[in-house]
Amino acid sequence: MALEQQLRVPGPTPLPQRVVRSASRPMINHRGPEFAELMSEVCSGLKTVLRTDNDVLLFPASGTGGMESAIVNLLSPGERALFLSVGSFGDRWVEMANIYGVDAVKLRAPSGEAIDPEDVERILAENPEIEKVFVTHNETSTGVTNDIPAIASVVKGRGKLLAVDSVSGASCIPLETDALGIDVVVTGSQKGWMAPPGLAMVAVSPAAYAAAEKAKLPRVYFDYHRERKFQANNQTYTTPPVSVMYAVQEGLRMILEEGVENVWARHARVGAMIRAGVEAAGLRLFAAAAHRSDTVTPIHNPAGTPEELSQLTGLLRTRYGLVLAGGQGDLKGRIFRIGHLGFIDEGAVYAILASLELALSERGLLSRVGLMVPAAQAAARGAAAPAETAGVR
Amino acid sequence: MALEQQLRVPGPTPLPQRVVRSASRPMINHRGPEFAELMSEVCSGLKTVLRTDNDVLLFPASGTGGMESAIVNLLSPGERALFLSVGSFGDRWVEMANIYGVDAVKLRAPSGEAIDPEDVERILAENPEIEKVFVTHNETSTGVTNDIPAIASVVKGRGKLLAVDSVSGASCIPLETDALGIDVVVTGSQKGWMAPPGLAMVAVSPAAYAAAEKAKLPRVYFDYHRERKFQANNQTYTTPPVSVMYAVQEGLRMILEEGVENVWARHARVGAMIRAGVEAAGLRLFAAAAHRSDTVTPIHNPAGTPEELSQLTGLLRTRYGLVLAGGQGDLKGRIFRIGHLGFIDEGAVYAILASLELALSERGLLSRVGLMVPAAQAAARGAAAPAETAGVR
Fold this sequence. Notes:
Two copies of one chain form a homodimer.
Chain A: E1 6-7, H1 17-23, H2 33-50, E2 55-60, H3 63-74, E3 80-85, H4 88-99, E4 103-108, H5 117-126, E5 132-136, E6 138-139, E7 144-145, H6 148-157, E8 161-165, H7 177-180, E9 184-188, E10 199-204, H8 206-214, H9 224-231, H10 242-258, H11 260-280, E11 296-300, H12 306-320, E12 322-323, E13 325-326, E14 335-339, H13 346-362, H14 372-380
Parallel strand pairs in A: 1-12, 3-4, 3-5, 5-8, 8-9
Antiparallel strand pairs in A: 2-10, 6-7, 9-10, 11-14, 13-14
Helix pairs in contact in A: 1-10, 2-10, 5-6, 10-11, 11-14, 12-13, 13-14
């Protein structure tokens, strides 16, 4: 029995008590001095974590809203642009671009694999008219992390604009916005920032602002230049989600107290622990070995049919209080996913793995219990995982 | 000295403790069964309060986002449409429409006055190609409430679509969505719903859905048909602002426990009390007598210069903990505004008026103290206000 549900989907993240308390502060006037202080601290913290001196614009929106902002501010109808997709959220960006009349060239890696920067190089060479490239940093649906430094090197080497969807990556996985010359970074409050959903945060470079001046797609709500003018006075164009911003403020304080590199290292350690534990049970990881995400781990369905997988995750939810995610789109029924981003530590990993192992055993999918946590412990110590595995039937 | 700041701007509303506690519940999976229950209750409650059987779609956005949704779902580039504006937010709708390439016909009432339905009748007769009319229910910037039943009668009498911005009106002021045949109603969580900002709620009629099928403006994030498909399964297209939805759920419970008509009556009573108190001090109300809002009361600057007004509201904020709003746009420095919507009762009104009266006196703007609260008390009893007034210098 679990006293409290353990939410381990790839976002929303569970909320630290500090964040909950902070988000519960009384409402304030979003045109007053208290809000200006809040806004200033949030924007400053976001710049620090995103490693950028660019503006970080705030929109009352989900991450998808942030993604739409990049389309409508950077592009014009009929313009050819390159989209690098490794899963559902990359596909969503392309779908948006198509609806907005963009001539979207889509490079789609097979599910579970990453973008090959050489393909990007080739496509840009073949399509010199392409001026803007859109790529997913960390794909929530497939658990793939793209090699952004290598992709940025190709894209920026040719002087193109680069927009990165890092909704589920930023603050958890290294992303050196300015050092890599990334022009737009989109992220969302409910992921590594340890806050509830409702705030899209978008870092915008001077080159992106310049592109927005020429881009012809219509926009008001998500307009970068409009928002920039208000942000210069520590306000927002439209009423901001104040309580979510309180939460982001406190999440940022926690991140900065821990240290950005330490947060990255914690996610790398947690990711390695989850993968070691899962593999010790003989479960098969979905993402290709070199590109596995440190924030979400998709696992092949160990249960046979989609119905049996559903019974496994249902059992985890009802008996163990552990909420995992299923597959999205054509991966529904084929994988399940463990989210491990934001408010996650080693103790949480042990609880996840031990519960998963018991549920697997109870569903008759595991011949031996007691290997997953030791494997994770070994990974936490930086040691190799024990050789023996339980073997899924 | 105030132990806690009293936020009396026309939104965000202060938050009841019940709402704060509800919003602080642990995060849940927005694709899971707990969220489906939350979504179902919220949508059902919204329908009850908005007096409609239409879908009420939820978007992670401010009220402005909801306003943009009506533009992009109902209209096509070059289409002529009628916008009835009585202030800044009505003007904002027109500005949006212009940016989206709509041929917006704007009927603007002088600031402080309401739309004359006969003007609407005339414009529609002169422009038979106009199929959609956009109107503000309650204009936050001027404190004017339009006569929606009369306007709806004209617009629906001609078989046109009617979209109503009721961001600061709905749940506080009567709005009979279905009885009046209103096709789109836009509202926002931070107003009468007693929740933090972050959720736009949009009631959409079958005729509005049909219009959306033909409308050519591009949209993804705010697309009604896309959202409708997800809502049919008690989900949302994009990650919803879960904590704000918890808050709206609890705010709705409070509204339904009190009774919708009782909430309307409370706002009418509170509005009358505020106006009686303000006039007893000899202050001048900005909005025309027949159309004064029961959620926000703008008052002519009693202090002379904009700087002196700023000193008055600054004194209220720092010494009395009372946060009021200034004027917007060309009304900046000319008026100040008391918000009284959502979490507001008679006791709060007395505190507002007593503090305001002392501050006016302290700034040398009032010859006599002690008239404002008795006038409000009389209004609360339904009696006529005392005849004598203090007289502003």
